[in-house]
Design brief:
- This protein is an all-alpha fold.
- It has one domain (about 1-114).
- It is built from 5 helices and no strands.
- It has helices at about 1-25, 25-35, 40-70, 70-90, 95-114.
Length: about 110
């Protein structure tokens, strides 16, 4: 089960690296996919970049926790990511619950069941 916990935590880290990209370099496309106008995409570019930086930070911290065997830190980060996914689903877009929260909860469960 430890392998499953590490694999799922790695998946969450990779997803957050993708979020980093989508909210920085990929923001024009992501903003358009979210239904924003060209002007709204430009207006929100810096806000999205800030979000992307946080997501990149979470990815790096998860990878650090995995590399150093700091299981409690990994679980704490995953709990925070899951909760923020719920907040994002309520305040931004419901699919965030599936894309962000579900993988984090699966990783938490794998850590707790190992």
């Amino acid at each position: 089960m430890a392998i499953a916990a590490l694999a799922l935590t790695g998946l969450v880290a990779v997803l957050h690296l993708l979020f980093l990209y989508m909210e920085t370099a990929g923001w024009p496309l992501m903003g358009k996919r979210m239904g924003l106008t060209k002007e709204e995409v430009e207006t929100t570019r810096m806000l999205a970049a800030n979000q992307g930086a946080y997501n990149g930070g979470f990815a790096i911290l998860l990878l650090w926790a995995m590399a150093t065997g700091n299981d409690p830190a990994a679980v704490a980060l995953l709990v925070f990511i899951a909760v923020m996914g719920v907040v994002g689903a309520v305040t931004a877009k419901g699919t965030i619950l599936v894309i962000q929260t579900l993988p984090a909860v699966a990783a938490i469960a794998a850590w707790l069941l190992r």
